[in-house]
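Example record used in the benchmark description.
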Amino acid sequence: MADEHSTARALENSTDHGTGERPRETTMKLALIGFGQAGGKIVDEFLAYDSAIDNSFVEAAIAVNSATTDLRGLDHVPQENRVLIGQARVKGHGVGADNELGAAVTEADIDEIQGAIDRVPVHEIDAFLIVAGMGGGTGSGGAPVLARHLKRIHTEPVYGLGILPGTDEGGIYTLNAARSFKTLVDEVDNLLVFDNDAWRSAGESVGSGYDRINREIVERFGLLFAAGEVGQNDHVAESVVDSSEIINTLESGVSTIGYASETVESANDGLLSSFRSDTEFDEGTATNRMTSLVRKATLGRLTLPCDAASADRGLVVATGSPEHLNRKGVERGRQWLEDETGSMEIRGGDYPLPGRDDVGAIVLLSGVTAVPRIDQLQQVAIEAQETTETVRANAQEDFATLVDTGGELDALF
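Model output (C-alpha cells):
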C-alpha cells in the first residue's frame, strides 16, 4: 500500500493539469513525531529548518513527552500538538530514564497520542517519522510502542530516527539504547540513525554539544527530505528525487547518511570568466567535483559509521548552486557508489539550491549491516542479560539458604 500511495502522488505531481507548466515540487511530506526530550527538541529544530528553507516537507509535527517542562521548552511545535503522557503515574515529572516505564505509560495513553495524530492530514503525507533519543526513558521505551500502533492503523510507511547516546553519557543510557534498538528496528519500516558518539567534539560542553549535534541532524536529514523540490525560480532539477525514490531506498533495516560540500566560485566572478569559455572543461570540472564529493560523503563521517560495502541500497543527491550541477556528475557519483557497495539498487538525482555558493552530495545508505556501534550495543545487551540472570540466580540461592537456615533455627527452639 505504501508504494501505491507514493506512486499515486508521483503521478499527480508529474501532471501539468492542462497548464503546460511543470509542478513546483514533489517534496516528501512527513508527519514528524518527537518522542521524549531529545525527540521533541529535534522536531522543533526541523520545523525551524523547514521554515528557513521555505520548503514544506514537514506536513505536521507532534511532540510527546512524560515531562511537562520538556514540552514547555519547545518553540515551534504548536501547543495543541504537545501531548503529555503518564500523568496518572509520574505526574508530569518524567520516567527517570526507565524505558520500561516509558513503554508502559505510552501503552496506557496511546489514545491521547492518537488524538493528536487524528488532526494530521494523513492523506497528504508520504510517511510518519518518529524521532527519539535511544538512551532516555520516554523516547526509547515509547517510540517502538507508537510505531507498532501506527503500522496497525495506517498504510503509510513508519520510519524512525534514533539518536544513540555517547558512551560517556552513562551506563544506563547505553543499556537503554541496547535494549530498545532492536525493538525499534523490528517495529519501523526503516531506522535512520545518528550516533552522538561519532559527533561529539572534545572539550565541548554538554549543552552546546547537543545544540550543534541537533543542527547537524536536521541539516543532513532535512536536505534529504527536502530534495524533491522540482524547481525554484526557474531552476529545474535535471533528475528529480521525489518521495518514491526515498521510500524505495528506505525499504527496511538500518540507514545512515553522509554529506560533503565544497565552496565554488560564482559564474559571474570576472577573475574566472576566461576559464569558463571552454564548456567541456567546465563540465569535466563539475563532474569530477561531484564524484569526489560523493566519495567524501560516503567514506567520511556518516551519521552512523559503518562499512559502506554492507549497504543493500543507496541514494545520491547532488545539491547546491544550479550552474555547478550536471547530470553526468550525478551519474558518475551514482556509478561509483554502485561499485563501492556492490548493489544494483543505487538511485541518484539533484536538488538545485539557487543563491548558494557551494555544491554538496548527500549519500543515503540503507540496509547497512557492518556497523561496529550496533555490535557494541548488542554486546552490552547480552552482558546485561547475563548479569541480570546471574543476580537473579544468586538472589534465589540466597533466599533458599535463608529459608533453610530459618528451618534449622526453628528446630533448635
